Amino acid sequence: MKPSPVESKTTAPIELAEGLEGEALVADGLDQLNFAGEVFDRGKFRNGKTTINISKPGNVKFVTVDIEKKEVLIANRSFGFIDTLRYLHLNPGPHKHPTWIFSKAWGWVADGTVYIALFLTLSGIYMWTVLRAERKADILALGSGAVAFFVILYGLIAL
Fold it and tell me: Any idea where the domains of the chain sit in the sequence?
């Protein structure tokens, strides 16, 4: 059974600059709140309110700015370890352009890992075809790796 996220809500006053509208007004409000994370869905204004989603691994904030009342409602949702790993797996995706420095760094690490894995796979295939004398040891290593993988997988599923 998957644990549900921990949720909390708070309200805070905010000073909105005069003469700002739309995106500039939202940016000014976010600067005052000093939240760190990836900003998604800078919502459209409806009835003097807009909602902004700010995400980082393990945490999502839904910030609703009420211009007339000059206050923000912050709904904070904290996730567990598995959901945090899921977030890191999906972000930054191929169609997302990260704005938070840590999301950019995570993208570089993820890309580097993929390139290293591809290099090791291709060089391993090449070595397998060229070095025929080592194939018995390779089969033994491949078999023991497969057994270790299935033992770990069984251990994870059995929990």
Answer: 6-80, 105-158
